[in-house]
Design brief:
Arc Repressor Mutant, subunit A; Rossmann fold; single chain; alpha/beta; seven-stranded mixed sheet; two-stranded antiparallel ribbon; binds S-adenosylmethionine; 2 domains
Length: 365
C-alpha cells in the first residue's frame, strides 16, 4: 500500500528504488511540516517561552506566551512528533531540550528558526509563481509581505555577529581606515543593519545606504534616528542605471550583502560600484555560494533550499523588474567574470567558517 493514500500497489512499487524514494519523500514532507511549525514557533514566541527549559503544560505555555491554548496544544503535538519538544507522559508537561533551545530561540546564535520563515514566506506567492511558469515574467517585491523583515533577521545572523571578527578583516587595515574616517556605501542595503552597526562603531566615517524599497529605507531611517546615528543617511534609489547614475570616485568602501543576484541589472550595478569607488577603494560583496552549474551544485548541502529561494524570490523579483533574472545560484565563476568586466583588476574570493551559504568577494581597481 502507498503509505499516504492507501492506493493499491502498482507494478512499479515492486521496485525497491521506488519504495526507497517514497519513504524519503514522505519523510521530507514530514520535515517540511516541521519547518512550517518552527516558523510559527519563532513568530509567536513559543520557542522563546520554552527557552529556560521549564516543564510546562499546554495551558502553562499558552499563558506564558500570551497565546490561545488550543493552537498551542496543536503546535505542541507537531513539535513532539518532530522530536523538537519532549513530552513527559506522566505529568503531561512539555520541555524544549537545551540543545534545541540553543538553535531555536532569539538568544541562540544562529537561530535556525529564522531561516524556517522563508518557507511560508515563499509559499504565500505560489499562485503567482505558477502563473510565471505559464506566462513568464516575475513576482514583484511588493507581493512578499514580510520579506524585508525576515531578510534583516537572516542577515542579522550571517553578517552582524561576524562583521568585526571575520568579514571586515578580509580587507587588511580596513578597520583602521574606518576608525580614522572614510566614506562608505552599502548598495541594496535593505533594512541596513550591517551599515548601522558600522556607523555606530566608526563615528568618524560617513555611511550611505541605497535601496529600491521605501519600506526598508523608512525602517532603516527611523531605526538610525532612534539609535542617535548622525553619520548615516539613506536614499531610496533604483540601481538599475547605477552604471550611469553612480557618483564618480565618491566612496572608499562599498559593500553589498546578498544584493547582487536579485538586481534587475546586476552588471549595471557592479559597473556603478566600480565608478563610485575612490582611488585605493575596495568593494566587499557577500553573495550566494553557487558553482554556476547544476552539476557543480549537486552536492551543495543546501542546494535545494538555495535554488528554491532563487526560483520563488531572487530570480522572480529581478524578472518582475524586467531584469536579468540572474538567480541566487549565479555562481562564483560568473561573479568573477562580471567583476572583471566591470573593471575590477583584482578579485579575491573568500569563504568564512560561520557562513555556509555565501562567498565573500574583495574587489579592487
Ligand atoms: C536579498 S536583499 C538584501 C538586503 C540587505 N543587504 C541584507 O543583507 O539584509 C536584496 C536587496 O536588494 C534590493 N533591490 C532589489 N532590486 C533593486 C533595485 N532595482 N534597486 C535597488 N535595490 C534593489 C531589495 O529591495 C533588497 O533590499
Amino acid at each position: 500500500m502507498c503509505q499516504l493514500c492507501s492506493a493499491p500497489p502498482s507494478a512499479a512499487t515492486n521496485d525497491a528504488d521506488v519504495g526507497a524514494f517514497e519513504e524519503r519523500f514522505i519523510a521530507a514532507m514530514n520535515e517540511a511540516a516541521m519547518i512550517a511549525m518552527a516558523s510559527l514557533g519563532h513568530r509567536t514566541g513559543l520557542f522563546d517561552a520554552m527557552a529556560d527549559g521549564e516543564a510546562l503544560t499546554s495551558s502553562g505555555l499558552a499563558a506564558k506566551a500570551g497565546l490561545d491554548e488550543r493552537y498551542v496544544r496543536e503546535w505542541l503535538g507537531a513539535m513532539v512528533c518532530a522530536g523538537i519538544v519532549v513530552l513527559d507522559d506522566g505529568s503531561g508537561t512539555y520541555i524544549l531540550p537545551r540543545a534545541h533551545a540553543a538553535r531555536l530561540t532569539r538568544t541562540a546564535s544562529p537561530n535556525l528558526a529564522v531561516m524556517a520563515q522563508f518557507m511560508p514566506l515563499l509559499s504565500a506567492v505560489e499562485d503567482d509563481i505558477v502563473g510565471c511558469f505559464r506566462n513568464g515574467g516575475g513576482v514583484p517585491y511588493a507581493r512578499f509581505g514580510r520579506f524585508h523583515e525576515v531578510m534583516a533577521e537572516e542577515s542579522g545572523q550571517t553578517v552582524l555577529p561576524e562583521l568585526e571578527a571575520s568579514i571586515l578583516p578580509l580587507v587588511p587595515r580596513l578597520q583602521r581606515r574606518l576608525a580614522d574616517g572614510i566614506a562608505v556605501l552599502d548598495v541594496g542595503c535593505g533594512r541596513a543593519r550591517a551599515l548601522m552597526q558600522m556607523a555606530e562603531r566608526y563615528p568618524k566615517s560617513q555611511f550611505t545606504g541605497l535601496d529600491l524599497s521605501e519600506e526598508a529605507i523608512d525602517w532603516a531611517r527611523s531605526t538610525a534616528r532612534a539609535r542617535g546615528l548622525a553619520n548615516i543617511k539613506f536614499r531610496t534609489q533604483d540601481l538599475a542605471d547605477f552604471d550611469r547614475a553612480a557618483p564618480l570616485a565618491a566612496y572608499d568602501l562599498i559593500t553589498s550583502f546578498d544584493a547582487i543576484h536579485d538586481q534587475p541589472q546586476p552588471m549595471a550595478m557592479i559597473k556603478g560600484i566600480r565608478r563610485a569607488l575612490a582611488p585605493g577603494g575596495v568593494y566587499l560583496a557577500q553573495d550566494i555560494k553557487g558553482s554556476g552549474s547544476h552539476a557543480g551544485d549537486r552536492d551543495n548541502p543546501i542546494g535545494t533550499l538555495l535554488y528554491t529561494i532563487s526560483c520563488m524570490h531572487c530570480m522572480t523579483v529581478s524578472l518582475a523588474q524586467g531584469g536579468a533574472g540572474l538567480g541566487a545560484m549565479w555562481g562564483r565563476s560568473t561573479a568573477e567574470s562580471m567583476f572583471t568586466e566591470a573593471g575590477f583588476g583584482s578579485v579575491e574570493v573568500h569563504e568564512l567558517a560561520h557562513d555556509l551559504q555565501n562567498y565573500y568577494y574583495v574587489c579592487r581597481a
